[in-house]
Amino acid sequence: MTTRDHTALGLTALGLAALPLAIHAQPSTDDQASATVELNPMVVTAALAPRTADQSLSSVTVIDEPALRRQDPSSITEVLRGQAGVDVTTQGNFGKQSSVFIRGTGSNANVLMIDGIRLRSATTGAASWEFLNPRMFERAELVRGPRGSLFGADAVGGVIQLFTPEGQEGDPQPRFSVGGGSFETQRYSASLSGAEGGTRYHFAASRFDTEGAPVRRDGDDKGYDNTAGLVRLSHTLVGGSEVGMLALRGRGSTEFDASGPAEDDFVQQVAAVYAETPVTDTWTSRVTLSEARDERDSLAPTYSSLFETRTRTAEWKNTLAMGRHEVVFGAEYSEDDLGDSQTSGLAFDEESRDNLAVFAQGLLDFQPLTTQLSLRHDDNQAFGEELTGSLALGYELDEYHVARASYGTAFRAPTFNELYFPFVGSSNPDLDAESSETFELGIRGQYDAWFWDLVAYQTEVDELIALDASFRPVNVDEARIHGAELSAGAELHGWTLAAAFTYTDPKDRDTGNQLARRATQSLRLDLDRELGDWSLGASWMAQNHRYNDSANQQRLPGYGIVDLRAGWDFAPMWSARLTVDNLLDKEYATARGSDFDPVTFEAIPFDYINAGRAAFVSVHFGR
User: Fold this and answer.
1) Mind telling me which residue stretches traverse the membrane in this protein (predicted)?
2) Which of the chain's termini has less CB crowding within 10 Å, N or C?
3) Which segments within 338-472 are labelled E, that is strand?
4) Can you give the residue ranges of every domain in the chain?
5) Statement: the pTM of the whole predicted model exceeds 0.90
6) Of the candidates 349, 437, 450, 563, which has an alpha carbon nearest to the alpha carbon of residue 149?
7) What is the 3 state secondary structure string of 315-362?
8) Per 3-state DSSP, what percentage of the chain is helix, strand, and coil (rounded to 5)?
9) Is residue 88 pLDDT above 80, yes or no?
């Protein structure tokens, strides 16, 4: 971006900061009270217990079902990109490799949960965000800041949890949609949801298929398809106990660039059963057994590989309610297993590891002061013991403003690739886990129809895992990340506004260089308007430049994109939607690759470009 672009970002951020401060708290009307519920939502990820956003003592963003319906995204990364503290890089659109950075930490230093079940690749340590079908979910909670004391390894930058729908009381509710558009894209989905006699159910299926777009200039289209299914059931027994199950599976293929035809066949799957019972009037106990799978079978001109990683987990969680105070404690056992994973016919030296953890958290309310204190101990077969903790303090300045301060530690576990990758000199079984500590100060204003949240933080990471001169992973680097985030929202007279500005300074302390592929400034604005049977909306997302490499020699320019959307409720239960992504047809890249010249033995860099303007039309039935 140019100096003018940076100035525009800064002025817009300043305007966002000033706008909420100028708002006067007005007496509640019915509309405003309804808006307050949406603008101060209940979240569970921040503290393992339900808390409103202002009570969570956390930096949290909630993307609810109405927002997902309005934006009608083709991928989860579309709604994550540009949210406060979140940066997304991709190697093209439509199922191409994507990384999600939270507060400047790596994609394998944050956690993805689906209904409380962690999903990731044990070999890379990162989630395959590009294969998540947004039509399987109704809500997302983005919690920024360390959560190692609650979720264990890798919750350094934060946690993103996706929630699937569950049935509600009343008649069965069917839904279906059909749509298509640019790049020969077709989308189909259907679901049935309801509850009767203490049993809640939700069944869903979805299909996405596209010829895709080129991922490099003058390249061929790279296709993608994804078929997903979901079953969620629960039953409430006499006495208040509840049992339930979840099964979510996505399967498909994606073409990628590898100097010739190349394709990944993938499976993403989570499954769980649980039982929850009230032991006493104040003590609730829950046991969950789950399995998560990340499978990828790659075929390219020069190599083939198969990775089938599984994580099996048994968790016992207890909640004690003691008046205004609450205590959460429990234990967790998990096992990572590579299964039949192979790469070029070579086997990993170790193909499984287990982890045993105990944790406890106190949520103490001494109005106007609230305290959250948590501690967790992990004992891992591969890298030993880790102790993490956090302390958060909140103080109600008045009826509308809450100030907070927190300190937390976390760690990132070495991955199977870093420890045991089966090529000579490419792994290191003696690696230690990365460790981090974070300080955070924030203040939130919560009004009848508006809110704003401002936070500043600093994270220091020790024993950072990086590649040495021979491309072997070693514990050598240290990183310091400091930044600030401003988010705001409003729901008033048919208008819905969401805004987020992020400043991040992720630096390698040894070299002073910016960490690779992280932008330092981003701004996102979402504006929607209800007009009777019609709705109109737009999103603007802008980021400054980033460097593709740790040496900061490969600079990727900043960019700004505009998306438009419209909806029409043309009959009872029926609606149509139109979305136009990248309205101005901007060519931009957030990652760079390279080809190998067999004559000069030099690397020839190229940009992974994102798709240009794309339009999609869909028809929907159901509430």
Assistant:
1) none
2) C
3) 342-343, 352-366, 369-380, 384-396, 401-412, 434-446, 450-467
4) 3-621
5) yes
6) 437
7) EEEEEEEECCEEEEEEEEEEEEECCCCEECCECCCCCEEEEEEEEEEE
8) 10, 60, 30
9) yes
